[in-house]
Every structure is written in structure tokens, then in C-alpha cells.
Write a structure and sequence with these properties.
single chain, alpha+beta, OB fold (Dihydrolipoamide Acetyltransferase, E2P), five-stranded mixed β-barrel, 5 helices, 36% helix
């Protein structure tokens, strides 16, 4: 094997290794909410306890995040909650039903694209 062939083979191996470790893009749908309300899968309990949350999931989500909660995507169909790795992309969709394209690693969702769907709340 020549030095050039060895170098080419090594380069191909390195590229393959790095390509294999990148999380795959997937599509998710659910509600952008906060992890405080997400653990109960509803804003109702928080809205009842804190009247300043009003009855609007947008207001509730944003206020909970201001209090230290984190944005999550709650997929009610799968019963799964993903913490949002890049919350600046989720913030405009707080309290709304969305479709997200992104990757998940250790239950953290990194959003590539996000859009409101259907009769978004």
C-alpha cells in the first residue's frame, strides 16, 4: 500500500466515523411548554395555583420560563417530553402546537426548523 493510498483510506475512515456520530434529523410534533407544567402534561395545575398565569398556555409557559423552567416539547401521542437545547427557537412558539425538525441526543432536542401546525393554541 502506498503512502497516498494509506492517507486516502485514513481520511475516509475519519469522515465515516464523524458522519456516524451525528444525530439523525427527525420530525416531531407536540406542544412547546415548560418543564414545570410538562411533568403534569397540562398547564391547569399551575394556572390554578398562580392566578397571574391566566388561562392562556402562552402566558403560562413564558412566565414559568421566567421563573427558571426550561422549554420542552411535549409529544402527547408518544407521552414523551424533550428538553429544548436551543430555547431561542422555541420561545416564539410557547404554548403552541408545533411541528419540529431536529435531532435528539440524551432526550435533548436541538431544533433545526419549527412551525405552528393546525389550530395552534
Amino acid at each position: 500500500m502506498t503512502a497516498k493510498t494509506l492517507k486516502t483510506s485514513l481520511m475516509a475512515l475519519v469522515i465515516t466515523c464523524f458522519a456516524g456520530t451525528a444525530p439523525a434529523q427527525q420530525t416531531f410534533s407536540g406542544e412547546i411548554m415548560d418543564d414545570l407544567c410538562g411533568k403534569d402534561k397540562t398547564h391547569a395545575k399551575m394556572m390554578e395555583q398562580m392566578k397571574s398565569m391566566t388561562s392562556d398556555p402562552v402566558v403560562c409557559t413564558k412566565k414559568c420560563v421566567q421563573l427558571g423552567a426550561h422549554y420542552v416539547l411535549l409529544d402527547r401521542q408518544k407521552g414523551t417530553m424533550y428538553r429544548i437545547e436551543n430555547p431561542e427557537k422555541a420561545e416564539p412558539f410557547a404554548g403552541k402546537t408545533v411541528q419540529v425538525s431536529g435531532s435528539v441526543e440524551k432526550n435533548k432536542l436541538k431544533i433545526s426548523t419549527i412551525e405552528a401546525i393546525g389550530g395552534a393554541k
